[in-house]
Design brief:
5-stranded mixed beta sheet; GTP Cyclohydrolase I, domain 2; single chain; alpha+beta; GTP_CycHdrlase_I; 2 domains
């Protein structure tokens, strides 16, 4: 399960490797079926209809995503490097180090993703790995990435991931030393209650960790100087890279927010949902009783239940439509007397109903506003955005729902742009790091006036950050 002692690593190196994609019989495998059954329990617990369009195939899609994203449990490291060690003599004489005679080799900017063992949400990793060859042999550079990916594709936390990659490479290559630095980015998702009170939520938790063996074993060793300088040469700030230990603050937002290490101190509204998450952990190859995972079902459910299908819509609509008379201007106003008003960068958080993976970003709202008309309050627009965001969603529907609701308030001339980062685009085998998605809904005059659309779009900040 990702232990760092040499026994399991030696066993993996000895037993070889099981590589490749999931077998063609994936749908019939017991682990897949067990995850599908567990996902149906979770959907029922959210008050959803598992037979509605959009959710019919969700259990299978979730099972496929999770098993693909944790395939490292079914892989071993020996044959990754065993057939990729090549003789390289290095310097025959003279002073110095080069090639197989001890010259430093670094591979930078490896984009990986892993699943957080504390909350089961994906997190992004930028991996930098180096080694000093010995025994006049070098390893194929792509193998450094593949070994790192094996351990990333497991439930992880940053320091253990760095240590496991470092140890596996040290055992597999037998170099003079291995160095690993990871830049890890965990999405900081607020809960439903807090987000209505404070919209300025931190989007990411970032941590920088290092691990070293051999000549890199001591964090202050001279061997680190060249490695760190070559990273800083590319603009990578590694000044804060260090080993984290058990005394450090939890890096997962779900742990720091809840203040709970285990689920034993938490009362769950639905024990069946807790059992379903434990079943998923077992099906992935994990032990739900491993001490680091004892609180994971509770923390995952605490996040998931933010998207419970509830009667919040009736309360919100009553609040919105009760204000309509206050927002309408007095008298008739012609289109020519109106100008475009906009509210930009309204934050939102949501959960993809296809894969039960989070996505988040910003919403931009534009509407025509007459002279003397008091624009709709930003807080009301933000409430509408959060209301539709905290549901099982797809981005296209979210965009349309926000536009239609604002249009019902303001008379129809509304345009909405949603920009989002989807964790399903970095996980489940897609791994399109840095990608973002934009959707548009244009109603009323915006749907027929290209100049109005262009004017509003040009007002949106050119840099999308969340």
């Amino acid at each position: 399960m990702g232990a760092l002692d040499e026994g399991p690593l030696d066993l993996e190196l000895e037993n070889g490797v099981k590589l490749g994609s999931i077998d063609l019989g994936f749908e019939e495998e017991p682990e897949t079926i067990a995850i599908e059954d567990a996902v149906r329990v979770l959907l029922h617990g959210l008050g959803e209809d598992v037979n509605r369009e959009g959710l019919k195939k969700t259990p299978f899609r979730v099972a496929k995503a999770l098993r693909e994203g944790t395939k490292g449990y079914r892989q071993k490291v020996k044959e990754i490097v065993q057939g990729a060690l090549f003789p390289e003599a290095g310097l025959d004489n003279g002073v110095g180090h080069a090639g197989g005679a001890g010259g430093l080799v670094i591979v930078r900017d490896l984009d990986l993703f892993s699943y957080c063992e504390s909350c089961m949400l994906p997190f992004q990793v930028k991996c930098h790995v180096g080694y000093v060859p010995s025994g006049q042999r070098v390893v194929g550079l792509s193998k450094l990435s593949r070994v790192a990916d094996v351990f990333a594709k497991r439930l992880q936390e940053p320091q253990r991931l760095a240590d496991e990659v470092c140890s596996a490479l040290h055992h597999g290559i037998n170099p003079a030393g291995v160095a690993v630095i990871l830049q890890c980015f965990h999405i900081h998702f607020p809960n439903l209650e807090s987000v209505f009170l404070d919209s300025n939520n931190q989007s990411w938790v970032k941590v920088l960790v290092r691990s070293g063996s051999g000549v890199f074993e001591n964090d202050t060793a001279e061997a680190w100087i060249d490695f760190l300088n070559l990273l800083q040469f590319r603009g990578i700030n590694v000044e804060k890279a260090r080993r984290r230990d058990s005394s450090d603050q939890f890096w997962c937002p779900s742990q720091s927010f809840s203040g709970e290490k285990t689920s034993s101190n938490n009362e769950l509204a639905n024990p069946g949902m807790d059992a379903a998450v434990a079943s998923i952990l077992r099906s992935l190859g994990e032990d739900p009783l491993r001490k680091e995972l004892l609180g994971t079902p509770c923390r995952f459910l605490k996040w998931l239940m933010n998207f419970q299908n509830s009667k919040l819509e009736m309360k919100l609509n009553g609040f919105v439509f009760g204000r309509m008379d206050l927002l309408k201007p007095n008298g008739e106003v012609t289109q020519s007397e109106k100008h475009i008003h906009s509210e930009l960068n309204l934050s939102f958080w949501s959960q993809c109903e296809h894969h039960l993976l989070p996505f988040h970003g910003v919403v931009h709202v534009g509407y025509f506003c007459s002279e003397g008309f008091n624009p709709i309050g930003k807080s009301l627009l933000q409430s509408i955005v959060h209301f539709y965001g905290f549901k099982l969603q797809v981005q296209e529907r979210l965009t349309r729902q926000i536009a239609e609701t604002v249009s019902s308030l303001l008379g129809g001339d509304v345009m909405v742009v949603v920009e989002a980062n989807h964790t399903c685009m970095i996980s489940r085998g897609i791994e399109k790091f840095g990608s973002s998605t934009a959707t548009i809904a244009a109603l009323g005059r915006f749907s027929t006036d290209p100049a109005a659309r262009a004017m509003f779009l040009q007002s949106i900040p050119s840099t999308f950050t969340t």
